[in-house]
Design a protein that fits this description.
Tripartite tricarboxylate transporter substrate binding protein, 11 helices, six-stranded mixed sheet, alpha/beta, Bug_dom1, 44% helix, BUG, five-stranded mixed sheet, D-Maltodextrin-Binding Protein, domain 2, 2 domains
Length: 325
């Protein structure tokens, strides 16, 4: 994948900048370090720009936590840059503080496997895995490409530009897998989030894009985009998505789920860790969680604390097979 290697070099530079910024914040960032629970307002850090799936997830978690803990205030802070590295480096500087959370997803695993950053998922405290999110391959209705299989075939014979959210995120993984298992050859163009990727495909800057269902549902309903496939083993059961064939059905054996989750800084006290896991469990049992999952078309597969950490460990092994090939 020609764009993948280019994005890799770009991210190495951006990550270095992010790490320098994180170091500068370190001494001033130990807010309430070691405290058993947050004091005052809590910050939900979002690693990508407003409008994408991570932003939607972060805002849903912030609102959901306050719905089950009315005395709590959670502010959302979008810290995009470095394909997520800026936000993770920022959270790294908040070690021990229960006043910070981060809306995480698969870039937490991909970044440390791909570039020289000072963190891995082990640097943080896993709180909750909200669910799993399979992406769609979409194009303008006027595009001659009508399926994932045809996208692979076209990429072998001509230049096909594909927009992705993050140079090394889940979208990059699915295109990399399409090349590995099916012989495609795509030019990927990384953007900072789903909103920018959406604008690029709608504006014709790229021909294809990998986007989450929640990011693209409005455009599908309006006929502004068409879905070529979902990168999954089985079709979605949501009525709005049930007619979209899987990549596997089309002879492209690529299935990859992005997880959505919540982490806290590393070094939390046991009391602070339990505080957030308890709040997360209450959120998972609330109408706010049910509404979020349905509105974002997620698979509601939850995990908390050590179970979330075990999921991350297994997922890291899978991602490493793709990223390090």
């Amino acid at each position: 994948m020609r764009g993948f290697s280019c994005g890799r070099r770009m991210l190495a530079v951006l990550s270095a900048v992010a790490l320098l910024g994180g170091c500068a914040l370190g001494s001033a960032g130990q807010d309430q370090a070691g405290a058993p629970r947050p004091v005052g307002a809590v910050t939900m850090v979002v690693p990508f720009a407003a409008g994408g799936g991570s932003d939607i997830s972060g805002r849903a978690m912030a609102a959901g936590l306050t719905s089950v803990r009315p005395q709590m205030r959670v502010d959302v802070d979008n810290r995009e840059g470095g394909q997520g590295a800026v936000a993770y480096s920022y959270l790294l500087s908040k070690a021990g503080s229960p006043n910070y959370l981060l809306a995480t997803e698969t870039s937490l695993l991909v970044l440390p496997l791909s570039v020289d950053v000072a963190f891995s998922y082990r640097s943080f405290t896993p709180i909750m895995k909200l669910g799993e999110d399979y992406t769609l391959l979409v194009a303008l209705p006027s595009s001659p490409i009508t399926s994932c299989a045809q996208a692979v075939d076209q990429s072998r014979h001509r230049r096909v530009l594909a927009g992705i959210s993050g140079a090394l995120g889940p979208d990059a993984v699915v295109f990399s897998e399409m090349e590995r298992v099916a012989g495609g050859d795509f030019d990927t163009v990384p953007y900072e989030g789903g909103g920018e990727t959406m604008a690029a495909v709608l504006g014709g800057q790229v021909e294809l894009a990998s986007l989450n269902p929640s990011e693209v549902m409005g455009q599908l309903r309006a006929g502004e985009l068409k879905a070529l496939c979902v990168f999954a083993d089985q079709r979605y059961t949501y009525p709005q998505l049930a007619d979209i064939p899987t990549s596997v059905e089309q002879g492209i054996p690529v299935s990859f789920a992005q997880f959505r989750g919540m982490i806290a800084p590393g070094g939390l006290s046991p009391e602070a860790t339990e505080h957030w896991i308890s709040a997360a469990r209450s959120f998972a049992e609330s109408p706010a969680y049910t509404e979020y999952v349905a509105s974002e078309f997620l698979q509601p597969r939850v995990a908390f604390g050590q179970d979330f950490a075990a999921y991350l460990e297994e997922s890291e092994k899978l991602v490493a097979q793709v990223v390090r090939r």
